[in-house]
Structures are given as C-alpha cells and as structure tokens.
Design goal:
38% of the residues lie in helices and 19% in strands. It has 20 helices and 25 strands.
C-alpha cells in the first residue's frame, strides 16, 4: 500500500517537473521567436543614454532692431557617471583648476570643493540612489569658464573622468537695466511651475520666464532642446560620446519699444525722483512713466523706478543681490500698479456733465474757493470759470459742482468708456483692473469689514473675555462702518476730483488720455510688433486693435482737448511753467493725489503735438508732492527727447556688447574635443 502511494507521488512530482520544463521551453520559444525583434531593440537601446541640451531662447529686439535681450555662448563644466567615493578625488583636482574663475573669484580651493560637493548632494537629494549619482545625466558644476581653464581640463583629461565640457547659451541683457522690469528675467523652473507645465515638455533644471515679457511670451521664446547620445556599459557608466542633435533656438520678439526713447524716459524718471528727494519729499523713491502712440496703442517706452540689472539672475542670483532687489521692491512694474489719479480724473467728470446735458459748453460759475464744506486748492478761488478754464487752472470747486450735478453712476460709466477700471489687455503678466468707485462697490467693500468686526464682537461676548474698553472700541468701529455702507455726498465730491476709491495704473491713464485726443478710440496697448522664427520667417505680426469707441461726442472731446491745451499756456495754466519755451504745442493735465499719512503722489499727463497728437505720456512719482513741479518736468523731458530723438546724442550705456549664439568662440580657443558628430534624434517641434 505504501509502495503504491510512493509511486503515485513520484509520478505526480515527475509530471510537475515535466510540465514546468514544457512551460519554460514554450516561454523560451516565444521569447526567441515571437519577441526576438522587440527585445533585440530594447537590448540595443539599453546601452544608449540621451541627455538634454539647453536650447537658446529667442532674442528680444526694439522696433529699430537694437538687441535688448541676447544670448551668448559660454563654456560649462559638468560631472557625470562617478561613484560618490570616486567623485571626491575628481572634485578635489577640479577645484584647483577652477580657482581664479569669475564664478569662484576670491575663494580657496577648499571652498570651491565644498560648493561642488554641495551641488552633488543637492542634485542627488530625494533620488532613489545610494552609491552612485546620475549615471549619465550631468550635474552642472560651473558656467562661463574661460578658454584657458578649458585647455587645462582637456590637457589633463586622464585625471578628470566624468568631467564634461559643453558650450551652452546664457541669457544676456547687454544694456543692463534698459526696459527693466518690463522684459523680466528667467530662472530654473520650480516644482509649482513644473506641475503647471507638466504637459509641455519641461524638466527640472529647465529655464523658464519668471516675469515680464520673458514670462508672457515663454511659449515663443523657449527653444527646442537638443540631445547628447552616450554609450554606457552594463553598470551605466559612459563609454563614449556618440554625438549630439542640435537644439533649435526660440523665436525672436520685435517690440514696439524704441530703445533710445526708453533710455531717455528711464533717465528722465530717475532724475525727476532725485529732484523730488532734493526738494523736500523724502518718500519719493519710486515711480513710473509710459509713452503711447496715440493712434495705435503701441507702447514706445515703459519705465519703472527703481530698476535692477537682470544679469544678476543669470546662472542663479546670489542671496545678497536678491535681498537688495526685494528691499527696493524693484521687481514691481509700477507702470501696471494702481494709483489714485487726482485731478487727472477731471476729464471724466467733465465728460459726464456734458454728455448727460447737466451743463452746456458755455456753462460758467464763480469760484470763491469754497464748495459747501470743501475748500479749493487755491485760496480765494479762481473767479469766473467755464469748463475750458476749469481744466486750465484745475478748479476743484467747478468739478465738485459737476460731480454733484451728475452723480457717481454717470462718472463711473464714462470712466469705463475711456477704459479706466478694467484691464487694458497689454501683453504683460500681472496687470490689475484698477477701481472705479460707485455705491455698489463701496457697499461690498465695507460689508466685508463689517462681517469681520462683528465676528470679533461675537467672539468676545461668547468667551466673556477682553476688556470693556476693547468691546466699546469695536462697537464704535462697527457704527462707523455701518455709516460707510451707504454712499455719501462726500464720496461723490471725492470721486469728481480723482480721490476716494479711484485707482488706475499709469498705463491706463496714458491710454485714457490717448482716447480723449484721438477721437474716442480705446486701443489695446501692446509691446510686441512681430515674432520671427530663428531662420527669419515671420511667425506672427501684431496689428493695432481697437477695443471699442467711447460713447462720447466729438464736440465734448474737442472742448476737453482745448482745455488741456490751455493747461500748458499762461496765464494760469497749471503746466504753463513746464512747457515754457517748448518748440511744439501740447496738452496736459496735472494731478496731485492725496495719500493718507504720506506726501501726495505727483501725476502728470501730456500729449503732443496739439494739432495732430502723436504720443501720450503718463508720469507718476510716488509721494512726489505736486504734479506740475515734480512729475511735469519728467514729461517735458520725454516729449522734448521724442521730437528731437534723431539729433539727441543718447547712449544706451551697454555694460557689455551683446553677442548672438551665431557668433561662436574663435577657432583657436575651442578645444578640439568639443566637436561631436551630428546625430539625428526624433523630437516634437513646437508650432504656434
């Protein structure tokens, strides 16, 4: 019985073995016969590795072809395919060769070695590896290395396994702060940006536009990365370089900006701020100026102060430079920031009164210097004034009267007709809509504050904590807020002269003035005229775009334009001194906007020539005091320069000559090993 049981188990065991052998033979046959080609291909590919090569970004030119943002070829040094133990010896030797290089100037060999090791650690952090870092993906150690150092590395190549020398494009801003912060800057993509662009082919360490034009036109400026193909051994170590596929540069932008006028505008703004500081306005440390083409919306110049040199961001910004830029708040494009318009809003009030038939063009009143509980800026008043003269002398009493006649809704309507309180559509990131005050907007604003205060009161009562004094303060604050929920007469009067909750950007103000003097057409302001491919083909041409025609009669626009011209003339024009001796006729409006707890903002709007306007200018100097005395001279300097630009000896003051990537290093300075064979690698090509 036991013998039969044993034989049965033996037969079963042999059957299992035979079945397993049959399965193995069938599987082996399947792999050898059916899947042979697939696995043969995988085996070939397993010993090849591709590493991405940065593509040159598109360059940025002004309307005349002056290169504002360029690229230049630089030598870079990277490490690849080393053990962590083996890397120590290479890093030690490499650190000695890098002493004296610009990026390591003043540092000892030990300090350089520490920095390189830190980069290796940072690169390997959070990666699923233990003994090896990046078997084939290079870790960039240094940029912008001199040819002399590259020669030393090539001469001692046998002592530097894993050291890779490449020529890469580096962003260059040859004229320093010219058009900053409008052009913006670039930097390595962060995790948040990578997540947002995960389907667009970005990888960690890629460069991406962070602000300004560099960010807004990122899809166009970004090139197509190239690739280097490496043969590796069974352990993934590089054996030889099989060649590269060239990267494709990004598209070039040609701007509406005139670089000469831009430099003149920036200089005029900086000088205006210095004058304000020297004449008793210690807070006047920032401002903006915009120059627009009246009949197209082209932005000819856009200046913001203070500025910075975007070259400090190339290759990674140092902490002290970042702290300095942030301390000055230089990254803010103040041409897009919101400011109370002050008396520059009075043209809206005039439009509302004329268009709603509350006054006729011949309407006259006697300004005694007072309107109810309001006091005009000029003691004793301006006497008998009509609308044109009211604009000329900036009579507050006149416009308070008009505001009372029209009411807030009419003023709000015509403000929006001129494009105020809404995004202009400019091709820059970060534009805000501004704010046109009205009863509904005021109620919403104070209702939010009321809810917050009521929660504090309820919490104190519920917890039975806090002094009675604090509770009484909150109750008084609540009563004040409840009063503010309703639109009051003083809100209307403040609105009529550009105070209260009026907030608009210098760009919006320039566009608003342009609409007044061009017949009521609101254009979309824009910075890029055309986009051109690296080989010179026109990819996109931008034409002037009419947003809408303001619902304002030509007669009203004519009267306001005449009043603005009188502003520049004596006697009495608030900008007569600014335009004294000007060889052209102009129109202007001064503005002095009150800021609680600070000096007033200085504003100035101007256009020229009066007969057939070409450009509109808006200048704002934060806490600069008076519009006529501080912002006005800046606008005059810009207008003078515009009409005499070809004769003016103006230097763009480049820090370094811009160099295109088409201008490679001289042949005698190029190490012979930097000439890999061409390699065709399939990749997707970006198209609009």
């Amino acid at each position: 019985m036991e013998k039969k049981e044993l034989e049965k188990k033996t037969h079963l065991f042999l059957a299992l073995i035979l079945g397993a052998l049959i399965i193995l033979i069938l599987r082996l046959g399947f792999l050898q016969l059916v899947k042979a080609d697939e696995y043969r291909t995988l085996a070939r590919q397993n010993h090849l590795r591709l590493t991405r090569l940065f593509a040159p970004r598109g360059e940025i030119f002004d309307r005349k072809g002056i290169r504002i943002v360029s690229n230049r070829p630089v030598y870079t040094i990277s490490l690849t395919g080393l053990d962590l133990k083996e890397s120590a010896q290479v890093v030690n030797y490499l650190a000695g060769l890098l002493q004296g290089e610009k990026s390591f100037q003043g540092k000892t060999k030990e300090q350089i070695e520490t920095e390189i090791q830190a980069k290796i650690i940072k690169f390997t952090k959070n990666k699923d590896i233990e003994e090896k870092f990046s078997l084939y993906e290079p870790i960039k150690i240094a940029c912008d290395i001199t040819p002399q150092t590259i020669f030393k590395i090539e001469e001692q190549r046998y002592q530097l396994p894993g050291v890779v020398v490449d020529v890469e494009p580096e962003r260059k801003y040859p004229y320093g702060d010219l058009l900053v912060p409008v052009v913006g800057y670039i930097g390595e993509i962060n995790e948040r940006e990578l997540a947002a662009h995960k389907d667009e082919g970005y990888y960690l360490k890629d460069l991406i536009g962070k602000e300004g034009l560099e960010k807004f036109y990122e899809p166009y400026l970004r090139g197509i990365p190239g690739a280097r193909q490496m043969e590796v051994d069974a352990l993934g170590r590089p054996v030889r370089d099989l060649g590269i596929s060239d990267a494709v540069p990004g598209n070039n932008l040609f701007l509406t900006i005139d670089a000469r006028l831009q430099r003149l505008t920036q200089d005029a703004l900086a000088q205006g701020i210095k004058r304000a500081l020297a004449t008793g306005y210690p807070e006047a440390r920032a401002g903006a100026a915009v120059v627009l083409s009246v009949y197209s919306g082209e932005i000819l110049a856009m200046a913001s102060y203070p500025t910075y040199d975007p070259n400090i961001f190339v290759g990674g910004i140092r902490e002290k430079d970042w702290a300095k830029v942030n301390e000055k708040k230089a990254l803010i494009n103040r041409a897009l920031a919101r400011y109370p318009p002050g008396s520059t809003f009075k043209m809206v009030t005039a439009t509302a009164a004329l268009e709603s038939k509350k006054i006729s063009p011949s309407y006259v009143l006697n300004c005694t210097g007072y309107y109810k509980y309001k006091k005009d800026w000029k003691p004793g008043g301006h006497g008998r004034v009509d609308l044109r003269k009211a604009l000329q002398v900036s009579c507050d009493v006149f416009f308070w009267t008009l505001g009372g006649l029209t009411g807030p809704e009419k003023m709000a309507y015509y403000a929006r007709e001129y494009g105020l309180g809404q995004k202009s559509g400019v091709d820059l990131p970060g534009e805000e809509a501004g704010r046109v005050p009205n009863p509904a907007q005021k109620y919403g604003k104070w209702q939010e504050e009321l809810v917050r205060v009521q929660k504090e009161i309820d919490q104190i009562k519920q917890e039975n904590q806090g002094s009675r004094g604090k509770l009484a303060d909150l109750e008084r604050k609540k009563s004040k807020i409840e009063w503010e929920l309703k639109w009051r007469e003083y809100d209307t009067l403040d609105m009529a002269v550009g105070q209260g909750d009026n907030y608009y950007s210098p760009l919006q103000l320039a566009n608003y003035l342009a609409a007044i003097v061009n017949g009521g057409i609101v254009y979309r302001p824009y910075l890029v005229k055309k986009i051109v491919t690296p080989d010179g083909r026109l990819l996109r041409k931008v034409e002037p775009q009419k947003v809408h025609k303001a619902n304002v009669s030509s007669q009203t626009l004519k009267i306001i334009k005449e009043g603005l011209h009188l502003v520049t003339l004596p006697p009495g024009g608030t900008a007569a001194g600014v335009f004294a001796g000007a060889p052209y006729k102009a129109g202007a409006k001064t503005g002095t906007a009150e800021v609680h707890g600070h000096d007033n903002h200085a504003l100035f709007l101007a256009f020229a020539p009066y007969e057939k306007p070409e450009i509109a200018v808006a200048v704002v100097i934060e806490y600069g005091g008076k519009g006529s005395g501080v912002a006005g001279p800046v606008a005059r300097q810009i207008l003078d320069g515009y009409f005499d630009l070809d004769k003016t000896k103006l230097t763009l003051a480049p820090k370094e000559t811009g160099q295109s990537l088409t201008n490679q290093f001289p042949a005698q300075n190029k190490p012979p090993e930097l000439k890999p064979r061409k390699l065709t690698i399939h990749r997707e090509v970006y198209q609009e």
